[in-house]
């Protein structure tokens, strides 16, 4: 049974995951551009973060591919078929963009050349735009059908598939990513005593290292087409424009 008493899926946790992706991905182009030329140490920190977020997204989409689409095609009205084909096609396109980002990351981290950093930021912007479009369509067209045609047990199995390949050491701050805007509702009840305090602290420490602040902008403060200051710029650039600890 889902948390609302229905035998069907409670999709609130999907919105929580999408909130993470909207926040983390919107900040990536600015992070890449904020790295000074030849600062290889900083470039590696940002690159590792990009790879982690991409891995999270890859596993999330792989789980959807494994669990959702065939069941919806079998159970939902036939009118949904083009929507499912669109979702699958967007997943494939996003995987191509993730691959392009990986190529740019490799070039950039080998010397932290500023031109390579800008090329990476441009590809990241394409990925962000495609991802935002995909999540909006999924929320509007797919999740209402999930709530009527996918059982809670199947939904939970999908979540487990998505989390299975994430390394245990990244677990606390990935949970912290979810909790940053969704609170304890993002944590299964059986894990709240274990992770309720640890995960937010782990994420805050991680953000301090990646963004230069334990409180990066929230999803409502960033987005496609929204002008936001660079995050992670410690001195000089962006001073007085909301960078660093000024974000709440």
Number of strands: 0
pLDDT below 50 for ≥5 consecutive residues: which ranges? 229-248
- Main beta-sheet strand count, sense and barrel state: none
* Whole-number total of structural domains: 1
The CATH top-level class label = Mainly Alpha
Strand content: under 5%
Offer a concise description of the structure.
The chain is an all-alpha fold and 248 residues long.
What features would you describe in this structure?
Helices cover 67% and strands 0% of the residues. It has 248 residues and is mainly α. It has a single domain, classed as Up-down Bundle (Four Helix Bundle (Hemerythrin (Met), subunit A)), CATH 1.20.120. The chain is globular. The longest helix has 36 residues, at 40-75. It has 8 helices and no strands. It starts with 11 loop residues before the first helix and ends in a 37-residue tail after the last helix.
Helix and strand topology:
Blueprint: H1 12-34, H2 40-75, H3 81-109, H4 114-149, H5 152-164, H6 171-182, H7 192-195, H8 198-211
Helix pairs in contact: 1-2, 1-4, 1-6, 2-3, 2-5, 3-4, 6-8
What labels describe this entry?
248 residues; globular; Four Helix Bundle (Hemerythrin (Met), subunit A); disordered C terminus; mainly alpha
